[in-house]
Amino acid sequence: MEQDNIFRIVVAATLLVAFSISGYFRSRANQSADNISPEEEGKFIYYFRSIGGLVMYGSMLLALIYPPTMQWARLSLPTWVRWTSAGVAIAMLPMIYWLFSSLGDNVTPTVVTRQEHQLVTQGPYRWIRHPLYTFGFLAIFASAITLDNWFIILTGLITINAILLRTPLEEAKLIEKFGDEYRRYMQRTGRYVPKLGIDRE
């Protein structure tokens, strides 16, 4: 039980740092640029990911604050698996800071680009078009596994599926704004993981 408390502390601290990084850069972007309504990505996808995220993070919060409420979904994973996942979650923190600092004021809550939006190709964006989703996926799953809870993993999958649905819409908006420049960028980068064997100058 004492080890479970340590795992909960690790997940809580990781989530706090991750949300602080995200909140800081999103707030700065909203202050320095035009505001965008999240619903502009389409109501279905917006509500799908919002409800999924609410259930997922609500379940995480219950598991962190009052664990008995989530005991019914316990997986009883080996300790080494949970420690490995905790390490992955912690390792995502500098990656999350890296991607947000590279993205700067171009971060948006939806698929719609800002009026002064710039095509970012530095940092992790040099190899991956959507590192926020990649690092976010890893952080969510690592946290869920660390908490040893299949329901949180399941709700994480639902939320991630909503993000996967909106990615083509996001890229269509970027093609609309940047045209052939973005098409060339797509040819040399992977959507969620780097392309291998590609000459990038």
Plain-language structure description:
The longest helix has 31 residues, at 2-32. The protein has a single domain, classed as Four Helix Bundle (Hemerythrin (Met), subunit A) (Up-down Bundle). Helix 1 runs parallel beside helix 3 (79-103), helix 3 packs antiparallel against helix 4 (131-146) and helix 4 packs antiparallel against helix 5. The mean pLDDT is 85. The radius of gyration is 18 Å and the shape is elongated. The protein has helices spanning 2-32, 43-65, 79-103, 131-146, 150-178, 180-188. It is mainly alpha-helical and 201 residues long. The protein is built from six helices and no strands. It starts with a helix and ends in a 13-residue tail after the last helix. It is 66% helix and 0% strand.
Low-confidence stretches: none
Total strands: the figure is 0
Largest sheet: none
Shape, per Cα inertia axes = elongated
CATH C-level? Mainly Alpha
- Computed structural class: mainly alpha
What's the helix count? 6
Helix content: 55-70%
Mean pLDDT: 85
CATH architecture field: Up-down Bundle
Gyration radius, rounded: 18 Å
Order of helices and strands: HHHHHH
- Tell me the number of structural domains: 1
Return the CATH topology.
Four Helix Bundle (Hemerythrin (Met), subunit A)
Short description:
The protein has 201 residues and is mainly α. The chain is 66% helix and 0% strand.
List the SSEs and their pairings.
Layout: H1 2-32, H2 43-65, H3 79-103, H4 131-146, H5 150-178, H6 180-188
Helix pairs in contact: 1-3, 2-5, 3-4, 4-5
